[in-house]
Structure formats: structure tokens, C-alpha cells
Design brief:
mainly alpha; 3 domains; two-stranded antiparallel ribbon
């Protein structure tokens, strides 16, 4: 080969290298225009990945990620999960993250939940599993027994907060992790307080659930809790109206009639002795503490105040309670509330 041909060949190779580096550089340079997250399922293709990115960012950046995946010869078929893209992050960085399966956690926040069904629906709306799969685990006697619960009281293990799990977490894994958080909350100090009340942690949750349904006023919850603890100590029926609503499956009831209190249900504390078999809602941690630290008093009865402030009148005697109830019933009648 002549010197001229050698130089030409070298020049061609150099030019090809320059072009390739320019091509790669176009992918490496220029970051994501904003924070975003994509969620991939098994069996996806590079095209599916770029489509997902284009929906949350833009087509140009998505195309760059696609090019980077091809440069890396990335196999994306098994890369399920949530992948977070940071503002300014290069397409090559995102591609490497997907190639290696470095998925991101998904934040899961829940509060103000009444039933297992409601909670399962929130799980299904957040993670790759469906609500029915989560609900099936909550209703599985053997699965609940692993953690010392039953399908009736498993909601006591669900403590409202913000958590982080992988998007593809299984129902069983999710429940196991939540049990870890439950054990962390129920430390030795709280367990001693529960024992001093003659209750298990799960039973504290049952009392707290009734308290939360009785009053939205956080500064009144300890007082309400002590009233029910007083009733338990005296082996009196709890006769808590919220348990009637739960038994009937109608949480919008404004007025509980005598006929309603007679409904035969293991949840209705007008017809059963002691506590129902589980919480009637998913309770906040601060309400659990309100029960554990309930101030001492002698009240045995309570009735909503006739001013509809959300607070209650408390009474030691039945005669005093009946007078309070009469005023409240009159206020309901005056407003036409049936």
C-alpha cells in the first residue's frame, strides 16, 4: 500500500471516529428538561421506553435515551420498575440506569382510610399490583397470622405515614415491610403503656379507631379514649355509634336510631360485649398515643354538642347524659336532620 493510500485510510478512520464521537456526544450532552419518572413492565422494548419518556418529557430527549440504549446494546425486556429521571441528567446516564435495573423507589402516603377495601384501592393505584391482589392477602388468614393478626384486625398493622417501596413490590412483601414499621412504632415503652391499660397493641388500635370516628377534634381524643377505657374497666357495653355505622356499611349516617343499634353484627358494640374484633378504620399514630396517654376522668357518657361544633358534652351519670342527648336531639330536629 502506498503512503498516500495509508494516509487516506487513516484519515477515513479518523473521520469515522470523529463522526461516532459526535454521535455519542449528542447523546451524552444535553440533560433532561425536568424531573420525571417512567414505569416499565416486563417485555418492554426500546421503543416502549422512549414512548414512556416522550409522554412525560419530550420526544427529542426520549430519542436520545433510545439512541443511548442502542449504543449500550441494552436488553430492556426484563427491566421492570420505576425509573426516576432528574432534571439535567444525560440520556446516557438514564440509559445506563435502565440497563442495570437501578430502579427508583415509589413514595406511598396514606391517611384518612376507613376500610381494607379503601386501602387496597390506594395500593393498586400506586403500585404495579392490582387492588384485588392486595385485598386477597389482607383477607388471607394464614398470611395475617404470620404477623399475629387476623383478617378482622389486620388494619391495625397499617400505620398512616409516607413510605417508599419499589413499584413492582408484591402484596406479601409490602405487608411484611409495613409490619417492620409497625414493630418499630410499637416499642417497649408503648407496649408497657398498652399493658397497663390491660390491652394489646391491636386492641389499642380498636379503641383508637372508635375515638377517631367519634371526634375529629384532636384535642378531645384523649378524653374520649378515657371514656371508653372507663367503660371497658366497668365491663359496660361500649355503645359506640360509629360501630353501628361500620356494621351497616353506611358511614354517612347523621342520626343513629334505636332500630339501627339492634342490628346483629360482631362489630356493633350495642349488641356485643367489649371491643369489636378489629379497628373500624385505619388509625393515625397520634390517636394511638392519645389512647395510651389518655387523661384520667370519671366520664362514662358522651353526646355531640348541640351547637354542632364537633365537640362533645361528657357526663358521669345517665341522667346527666339523657339531658345532654335531649338537647342534641332537639337541635337535630330543628335542622330537619333525620
Amino acid at each position: 500500500m502506498t503512503k498516500k493510500k495509508i494516509l487516506t485510510a487513516v484519515a477515513v478512520v479518523a473521520l469515522a471516529g470523529i463522526c461516532y464521537m459526535a454521535y455519542v456526544g449528542r447523546v451524552l450532552l444535553g440533560g433532561a428538561p425536568a424531573d420525571a419518572e417512567i414505569r416499565l413492565r416486563k417485555g418492554c422494548t426500546v421503543e416502549m421506553v422512549t414512548d414512556s419518556i416522550a409522554r412525560v418529557l419530550d420526544a427529542d430527549y426520549a430519542a436520545k435515551v433510545g439512541e443511548a440504549l442502542r449504543i449500550l446494546k441494552a436488553n430492556v425486556e426484563d427491566r421492570q420498575g420505576a425509573y426516576r429521571i432528574m432534571s439535567g441528567e444525560s440520556a446516557m446516564s438514564v440509559a445506563r440506569k435502565i440497563r442495570s435495573g437501578a430502579e427508583s423507589g415509589v413514595k406511598f402516603t396514606f391517611n384518612n382510610v376507613r376500610t381494607k377495601q379503601d386501602w387496597a384501592r390506594r395500593v393498586g393505584a400506586t403500585f404495579a399490583m392490582d387492588a384485588d391482589s392486595m385485598l386477597a392477602v389482607l383477607n388471607d388468614t394464614a398470611e395475617c397470622a404470620k404477623y399475629g393478626f387476623t383478617p378482622d384486625n389486620i388494619t391495625a398493622m397499617l400505620l398512616p405515614d409516607t413510605y417508599e417501596f419499589y413499584w413492582c413490590v408484591t402484596p406479601q412483601k409490602l405487608l411484611g415491610r409495613l409490619h417492620d414499621y409497625y414493630e418499630y412504632f410499637w416499642d417497649n415503652a408503648r407496649r408497657r403503656k398498652a399493658a397497663d391499660l390491660g390491652l394489646t397493641p391491636a386492641e389499642v388500635s380498636v379503641v383508637a379507631s372508635i375515638v377517631e370516628e367519634e371526634t375529629a377534634k384532636t384535642d378531645e381524643r384523649g378524653k374520649v379514649a378515657r371514656l371508653y377505657l372507663n367503660r371497658l374497666d366497668r365491663k359496660m357495653p361500649l355503645q359506640a355509634d360509629p360501630t353501628v355505622k361500620f356494621a351497616l356499611g353506611d358511614f354517612g349516617l347523621r342520626r343513629i336510631t334505636h332500630a339501627m343499634t339492634r342490628v346483629q353484627s360482631k362489630w356493633n358494640t350495642y349488641v356485643i360485649a367489649g371491643l369489636p374484633p378489629g379497628p373500624i378504620r385505619v388509625v393515625e399514630k397520634r390517636t394511638l398515643d392519645a389512647v395510651l396517654n389518655a387523661p384520667t376522668h370519671d366520664y362514662l357518657y358522651m353526646c355531640a354538642k348541640e351547637d354542632f361544633s364537633g365537640y362533645h358534652n361528657f357526663a358521669v351519670s345517665l341522667s346527666e347524659h339523657n339531658a345532654n342527648a335531649k338537647r342534641y336531639q332537639a337541635a337535630l330536629n330543628a335542622r330537619g336532620i333525620k
